[in-house]
Amino acid sequence: MERIGILRMPLGNLQSVWNALYTSGFDPEFVDEHSNFDDFSHLIIPGVGHFKAVMDHLHDKDLPKRILDFAASGRPTLGICVGMQLLGLSSTEGDVETQGLGLVNGMVTRLPTEGQVLPHVGWSTVEFKRSHPVTEQLKQGRDYYFVHSYAMTAEIEDPVIGVSSYGRDFVSIVGQDNVVGFQFHPEKSQANGLQLLTNFAYWDGKC
Amino acid sequence: MLKKRIIPIQLLNGGRLVKSIEFGGFRDVGDPVKSSSVYNSQFADELILLNVAREPRSIASLLDVVVEVSKVSFMPLAIGGGIASSHDAAALIRNGADKVVMNTVAYRNLNVITETANRFGSQAVIVSIDVRWDPSMNDYVLYSNCGMTTEHVTLEQHIGRVIGAGAGEIMVQSIDRDGSMSGFDTKLINRAMAVSPAPVIGAGGSGNYDQLREAFLETGVSALACGSLFNFSDSNPLRAKAFLANYGLPFKKV
C-alpha cells in the first residue's frame, strides 16, 4: 500500500501538495524530524524559498541523513521546485556555493537575466527526453506552472527526463534510480500535474 | 516562452460571488467554491478572488474561502481585498493562496509590499490599480478603497513606486469598463505596460472573445482577467483559448 509522506518545510504552501494527492485518491501525511520515515513508502520534498535557507533548515533538524537513508532504501523519493534543486549536487543561490543532497547528478545555477524578468513565473513547456514510469500517459510538449529563478543543469544526459527553456535550457524533470524531481509545481499544473503526482504515488521506484 | 493567460476574476461579497458594474450594483453569480471547481475543469490559467464587501474591510472572510477553493482548484490562486499588513498576506498564503493582491495598502504603506515580497518572493505580490478616465483632466485618475477614494498620484508614478517596493505583477482595472462587457481599455493597458518591467494583467470590460483578441494583439499584455464574460455569457476559458489560438496567441497546452 502507498503511504505517502510530505516533508514539512519552513515556508510556502504545503497544503496544495496534500490537496492534489488527496483529490487524486491518496491520503498523504506530513512528516518532520519526529516522524519514523520507515512508516512511509513514498517521500515528497516540496519546497519554496532560498536553497541555502532550506538546506540550513534540513541540517538544523538532522534531516539530510534521514532523507538519504530513505532514498538509499530504494523507496520512491520526489523533490518539487526547490525540493528538486536540493536533490542536486550544489546550488549557487546565496553568497557561497551550497552543497545539496547529491541524489541526482545536477548543478543548480541562476537563470539568465538578460532581456527577461526573474523569477520565471508562469506556464512553460516541458519536452520529455526519455520515458520514465512517472511520465507515463502524459503527452509530449505540455505546459506546467513554474516559479523559480534558479534551475538545474546536468553534466551528463542520463538523469534528464524533461527539459524546458527560459533564457537557457534547464532540467525541468530529473530522475536517477528511485529519485525524481519536478522544477515546476505539479500541484498547480491541473490535470497533467495531478497525473504526474498519481504516477509517482503508484511508482515502485524501479525504472 | 511564457504562455498568455486567461484569468477568471471572482468577486466575493459575504460568502457569495457577485458581479459589479462600475464597482456597484452587485448581482449574485454563485458560490465561490463551486465556481472555482468549474474553472479548474475548464483549464483556466489562474484564478483571482477579490473580497469586495465594503464592511468590514478585512481578510477574515477570505481565509475560510481560500482553504476551500484550494481543495478544488489546482492552479495558481491570487487572493486579495482588504489586506492591511504583511501578516494578512502571510495568513492568506498559509491558507492556500499562491499570490496576494494588494490595492489600497499600496498607496498607504509600501512596506507591506516589501515585507511580503522579501518573505515569499516578488511573484507572490500583485498590485491591483483601479482607474477611471477623467475627461476634464484628460488623464486617468487612480482610485483606492473599492473605487471610492481618489488618489493623487499618476499611473506611472504609482507603478514605479510599487515595482520599486517589490511588486511582481501589476493588474490595471478600468472602473469605467467594469461590467460593461464593452471590451478592454487597451490604451490604459499600454500605458501600464510602457512603464512596468513586471507582467501586466488587464481587467475590466470583457464581453466576448473578439475583445480578448483585440486586447492581446494591440497590447501584448501577458494576461487578461475576465468577470462578466464567464459569468453572463455562454463562454468559458477553454473556448476562449481555442478561439484565440487561431490568431497565433500562445496558451498552455493541456
From TrEMBL, chain A:
<keyword id="KW-0456">Lyase</keyword>
<keyword id="KW-0963">Cytoplasm</keyword>
<dbReference type="GO" id="GO:0016829">
    <property type="term" value="F:lyase activity"/>
</dbReference>
<dbReference type="GO" id="GO:0004359">
    <property type="term" value="F:glutaminase activity"/>
</dbReference>
<dbReference type="GO" id="GO:0016491">
    <property type="term" value="F:oxidoreductase activity"/>
</dbReference>
<dbReference type="GO" id="GO:0000105">
    <property type="term" value="P:L-histidine biosynthetic process"/>
</dbReference>
<dbReference type="InterPro" id="IPR017926">
    <property type="entry name" value="GATASE"/>
</dbReference>
<comment type="pathway">
    <text>Amino-acid biosynthesis; L-histidine biosynthesis; L-histidine from 5-phospho-alpha-D-ribose 1-diphosphate: step 5/9.</text>
</comment>
<feature type="active site">
    <location>
        <position position="187"/>
    </location>
</feature>
<keyword id="KW-0028">Amino-acid biosynthesis</keyword>
<feature type="active site" description="Nucleophile">
    <location>
        <position position="81"/>
    </location>
</feature>
<keyword id="KW-0315">Glutamine amidotransferase</keyword>
<feature type="domain" description="Tyrosinase copper-binding">
    <location>
        <begin position="27"/>
        <end position="38"/>
    </location>
</feature>
<comment type="function">
    <text>IGPS catalyzes the conversion of PRFAR and glutamine to IGP, AICAR and glutamate. The HisH subunit catalyzes the hydrolysis of glutamine to glutamate and ammonia as part of the synthesis of IGP and AICAR. The resulting ammonia molecule is channeled to the active site of HisF.</text>
</comment>
<keyword id="KW-0378">Hydrolase</keyword>
<feature type="active site">
    <location>
        <position position="185"/>
    </location>
</feature>
<dbReference type="InterPro" id="IPR002227">
    <property type="entry name" value="Tyrosinase_Cu-bd"/>
</dbReference>
<dbReference type="GO" id="GO:0000107">
    <property type="term" value="F:imidazoleglycerol-phosphate synthase activity"/>
</dbReference>
<keyword id="KW-0368">Histidine biosynthesis</keyword>
<comment type="subunit">
    <text>Heterodimer of HisH and HisF.</text>
</comment>
<dbReference type="InterPro" id="IPR029062">
    <property type="entry name" value="Class_I_gatase-like"/>
</dbReference>
<protein>
    <recommendedName>
        <fullName>Imidazole glycerol phosphate synthase subunit HisH</fullName>
        <ecNumber>4.3.2.10</ecNumber>
        <ecNumber>3.5.1.2</ecNumber>
    </recommendedName>
</protein>
Automatic annotation (TrEMBL), chain B:
<comment type="function">
    <text>IGPS catalyzes the conversion of PRFAR and glutamine to IGP, AICAR and glutamate. The HisF subunit catalyzes the cyclization activity that produces IGP and AICAR from PRFAR using the ammonia provided by the HisH subunit.</text>
</comment>
<comment type="similarity">
    <text>Belongs to the HisA/HisF family.</text>
</comment>
<keyword id="KW-0028">Amino-acid biosynthesis</keyword>
<dbReference type="GO" id="GO:0016829">
    <property type="term" value="F:lyase activity"/>
</dbReference>
<dbReference type="InterPro" id="IPR013785">
    <property type="entry name" value="Aldolase_TIM"/>
</dbReference>
<keyword id="KW-0368">Histidine biosynthesis</keyword>
<dbReference type="GO" id="GO:0000105">
    <property type="term" value="P:L-histidine biosynthetic process"/>
</dbReference>
<dbReference type="Pfam" id="PF00977">
    <property type="entry name" value="His_biosynth"/>
</dbReference>
<comment type="subunit">
    <text>Heterodimer of HisH and HisF.</text>
</comment>
<comment type="pathway">
    <text>Amino-acid biosynthesis; L-histidine biosynthesis; L-histidine from 5-phospho-alpha-D-ribose 1-diphosphate: step 5/9.</text>
</comment>
<dbReference type="InterPro" id="IPR011060">
    <property type="entry name" value="RibuloseP-bd_barrel"/>
</dbReference>
<dbReference type="InterPro" id="IPR006062">
    <property type="entry name" value="His_biosynth"/>
</dbReference>
<dbReference type="InterPro" id="IPR004651">
    <property type="entry name" value="HisF"/>
</dbReference>
<dbReference type="InterPro" id="IPR050064">
    <property type="entry name" value="IGPS_HisA/HisF"/>
</dbReference>
<protein>
    <recommendedName>
        <fullName>Imidazole glycerol phosphate synthase subunit HisF</fullName>
        <ecNumber>4.3.2.10</ecNumber>
    </recommendedName>
</protein>
<keyword id="KW-0456">Lyase</keyword>
<dbReference type="GO" id="GO:0000107">
    <property type="term" value="F:imidazoleglycerol-phosphate synthase activity"/>
</dbReference>
